[in-house]
Please model this.
Amino acid sequence: MRDADIQLRPATRADLPAVGRMGAQLLRAHHGFDSCRFMAPREGAEEGYAWFLGTQLEEPNSVVLVAESGGRVVGYAYAAMEPLSWKELRDAAGFIHDVYVDEAAREAGVASALVEACVRWLSDRGAPRVLLWTAVPNDTARRLFERLGFRHTMLEMTREC
Model:
């Protein structure tokens, strides 16, 4: 797969089964990183994630993008404009919530293209900055985000009660 084979576009309702499957994979990966911090995958995770992302398709301050190759969805990203947050000590900002690429499509520039498309979408809506989170053990994602110009600003810490 080459960059030229990748088409990015807004997700549609027809894409929800594919993005739901990928969102459930994202959930499983994070739970694998830290089973105490991240939700446990449960039966129907694919449908649940598809339902949630489907609610975001009509939100004017959210975008779900898909990367398509050969007529098949191989990745997706979900981003939104977030209002000022006193609890997070930040002004309004864009936030990239999800980026996922199928294993067979990795190392082909799909994730970079999705992130950059989200940044453009957020910038076009006036975002002065774009934030994202990545799991500490996810070195591959962290290196990608650093390469794309993201810098470390916060470190989440968790303690079980």
Summary: The domain at 3-147 is CATH 3.40.630.30 (Aminopeptidase). The radius of gyration is 16 Å. Strands lie at 7-10, 62-69, 72-82, 93-101, 130-132.
